[in-house]
Amino acid sequence: MRSSDGDGKVRMTASHDTADATDRTVGSTSGERAAFARDGVVRWGRLLTPDQIDALRSSVERAFFRDGHPADGVRDLSERQGRPLDLALLHKINLWRTDEACAAQVARADLADRAEALLGGPVRLYRDHVFYKPPGKGDRSRMVLHQDNRYWHLDPPEAITVWMALDDATVENGCVHYVLGSHRHGRVEHVRPEEGAVMIEARTEQEPVAYPAPAGDALVHSVNTLHGSGPNLSDGPRRAYVVVYVRDGVTMRGEPMTSFPLVGDLVRGG
Ligand SMILES: O=C(O)CCC(=O)C(=O)O
């Protein structure tokens, strides 16, 4: 299905095909903005310390499972109409409202600064969320290619997702894949792959590129960047903690987003 060479580049075959996943970490703000404008995705290396990773993992386990069953608010994105739940691709939003470790992340001044630099002005917190791929679910844990803005309807599409790996994300356990430059092509056609499927799937001729990420690294993508993730074929979970920032002034379905907090206020404890 794939080969990974010594310098960390990963070449994909099968549905997500051969492409060069060079390390697109960038140091300077202008370099980062240029890379983001070109690719629609950049890497923020080592965003979480080992202690923060541990704290977030514990928070995620508490938020997702109660007595071995999915807790309140957990959704199964692999759900299909008329079939028993697979619990293969679990999702939960707004953990920061009740969890200390998540609340600390969304109030991080350094993250706010980087998000503001990338989006070019003050930002609001749209949500945090977690994607959880348990082991042993095979292809059902795949996330189909999509643009986030097909769900969120943000206008203008000035928003970023900061996707933080809580486990080493590899091709084997379902790391994220991006279609580089796809954010520049506006709305892409999506179809529902199966009746009752939760996620709609983008139609594109372009090849996605696998972005493996060690635990603690973040991948930052535009709300219009096409992305998906492979199945978790490993024997451990693949978890990610995600924060979504929206530039102040952006509307959602034509409505102002003033009920979403300004991140500057969260940073100052407001
Ligand atoms: O974590 C994944 O597998 C999917 C991530 C994703 O779709 C997102 O962050 O928008």
From TrEMBL:
Protein name: Putative oxigenase
InterPro entries in the record: Phytyl_CoA_dOase-like
Source superkingdom: Bacteria
Keywords of the record: Plasmid
Region (Disordered): 1-30
Amino acid composition bias (Basic and acidic residues), ranges on this chain: 1-10
One GO MF term attached to the UniProt entry: iron ion binding
